Amino acid sequence: MSREMDTRSSILKAGAQIVHRKGFNATGLQEVLDAARVPKGSFYHYFKSKEDFGLQLIDYFAAYLKDMRDRFYEDHTLSPIEKIRGLYRWQAESFLRSGFKGGCPIGNLALEMGDRNDKFRKKLNQVFADMKKTMAAHLEQAREQGEISGSIDVHETVDFIMSSWEGALMQMKVSKSTSPHEVFDRMVFERLLRSA
User: Fold this and answer.
1) What is the DSSP code string of 155-186?
2) Which of 68, 164, 176, 183 has an alpha carbon within 20 to 30 A of 7's alpha carbon?
3) For 1-47, which CATH class?
4) What's the CA gap between 91 and 80, in Å, rounded?
């Protein structure tokens, strides 16, 4: 990695940790630069503004989440439904280990910025669309293999699962408990996604 890319990555990595913990609006640029150990002039070499930084941060979070999903989605020892279920269990366990702090960085930014900044809204919506597309492909595969009912509308089901998960994360955050994940897991994987 070139030094230039390394500096940009350092700023994004430091910013991602702070924004995930505090939110985008509560995060100051100087705080990010201090954490990344780079001078202020460096920031404007890589980012036009705080808004531009935030938009690039969405890409950073999306790439991180894709890497995490691929760990499960590319495991050929698991069935399509086991891959999806394993991913959500891993996320719940990670959230528990963090003391229920943070949660889904894309969901957090959607709640904070989705109705305040149209550029954020459009970019976040695209990230959700990409996540849904990947999950839908696995549900299609599960349907073809008879792992779930052939009558299931894959795209509506994916919309429901993702909306339910974001709600479960919010409830885990305020209850400091994995109970919302346990309900989510039972309802989605033992009732909704059953074989015919």
Assistant:
1) HHHHHHHHHHHHHHHHHHHHHTSSHHHHHHHI
2) 68
3) mainly alpha
4) 17
Q: What DSSP designation does 79 have?
A: -
Question: Which tens digit of pLDDT belongs to each residue from 109-135?
Answer: 999 999 999 999 999 999 999 999 999
Which superfamily is assigned to 51-192 in CATH?
Answer: Tetracycline Repressor, domain 2 (1.10.357.10)
Residues in the chain: 196
> How far is 91 from 86, CA to CA, in rounded Å?
9
Q: Hey, where are the domains in the chain?
A: 1-47, 51-192
What stretches of the chain show up as alpha helix (H) in DSSP?
3-22, 29-36, 40-46, 50-73, 80-97, 105-113, 118-144, 154-175, 179-185
Q: End-to-end alpha-carbon separation of the chain, Å?
A: 50
